[in-house]
Design brief:
Length: 330
């Protein structure tokens, strides 16, 4: 069975497991895990920010990142299918007490006209204040689309002008970086606070990082502990992340090529496949997934008429060819 349900399904490679086994560790709640510290410094540097904080999940990372720029009773604006709006089970409302409004874009891009018309300045006791704009790059539910750097720059410029912050959900920012050649720090420069995942295409078993100013990260460290996310000898997991940064970033280009191959076989225009996610609109989505499984390929539905396939570290070129041949028969 070739499993294309998600790029979270990867398991650590033998070399990654060795790096984990050999990691130097300490109690990270005491700030004494050298491997975690190394990972945090490295990721902060890559994104051109002052600091980073290792998190158990991308959801916690997003919650604490958004919380660092949006207060109780304030709002964040984002795209309608954003992970923060759709897939974090209301965490931002439940924990932070913020509200959200959304704009819609078929590719998950920024609609700056919509952002401008929705933005609400501080009007004291009359209206909810827009404290931040949140964007996702690549955009998961829009099909792994890359947010054009120029849009991100325009959004940041607008945000600075109105005194709001930009949050970037970069769970798959690595894919955007590899697909476009844009340095990570250029993306980093367009956001006040970011989240990046190690447990998606990079193939680490666990882990994400919140990235931002030293002050935001210091405060998030307190909140992470408050939420039960203070981790001890967690360098074994950070070592997997460091290994992934050394060995699994450039190879994301292979995942992107595999995704285009699969798209073509499934009747999707490969020109629209920008990274490692292929979205297939079909009225018979559930039955298509069943028939694909019978042909040896596991896919998932992400809506009543939407099938998703995701390539990753666990899928070789031979696997992709085999899956493509199976999908072509459907
Ligand atoms: C996976 C993902 C996250 C984080 O998910 P966790 O499962 O909590 O690690 C955040 N944003 C996007 C866009 C994602 O795809």
């Amino acid at each position: 069975m070739i499993d294309l349900r998600s790029d979270t399904l990867t398991t650590p490679t033998p070399a990654m497991r060795r790096a984990m086994a050999e990691a130097e560790v300490g109690d990270d709640v005491y700030g004494e895990d050298p491997t975690v510290t190394l990972l945090e410094e490295r990721v902060a540097d890559l994104l051109g920010h002052e600091a980073a904080l290792f998190m158990p999940t991308g959801s916690m990372s997003n919650v604490l990142a958004v919380r660092s720029v949006v207060g109780v009773g304030e709002e964040v604006l984002c795209e309608a299918r954003a992970h923060i709006a759709r897939a974090e089970l209301g965490a931002h409302g439940a924990y932070t007490g913020l509200t959200m409004r959304t704009w819609s874009h078929p590719l998950g891009h920024v609609d700056l006209d919509a952002v401008r018309s929705m933005h609400a300045p501080n009007m004291g006791p009359f209206f909810v204040r827009t404290a931040a704009f949140s964007v996702e790059n690549t955009h998961n539910f829009a099909g792994g689309t890359v947010l054009p750097l120029a849009q991100l720059r325009d959004l940041k410029e607008y945000a600075v002008g109105v005194g709001a912050a930009v949050h970037l959900d970069g769970a798959r920012l690595w894919n955007a970086h590899v697909a476009t050649g844009t340095p990570l720090a250029e993306y980093g420069a367009c956001a006040d606070v970011l989240s990046v995942c190690l447990s998606k295409g990079l193939g680490a078993p666990v882990g994400s990082l919140m990235v931002g100013s030293a002050d935001a990260v210091a405060e998030a460290r307190v909140w992470r502990k408050r939420m039960g996310g203070g981790m001890r000898q967690v360098g074994v997991l950070a070592a997997a992340g460091l290994h992934a940064l050394d060995h699994h970033v450039e190879r994301l280009a292979d995942d992107h090529a595999h995704a285009r191959l699969l798209a073509e076989a499934a009747g999707v225009d490969p020109a629209g496949v920008e990274t490692n996610i292929v979205v297939l609109e079909r009225s018979d989505a559930a039955s298509y997934v069943e028939r694909a499984a019978a042909a040896g390929v596991r896919l998932s539905t992400v809506g009543p008429t939407t099938v998703r396939m995701v390539t990753h570290l666990g899928v070789t070129w031979a696997d992709a060819e085999q899956a493509a041949a199976a999908l072509a028969t459907l």
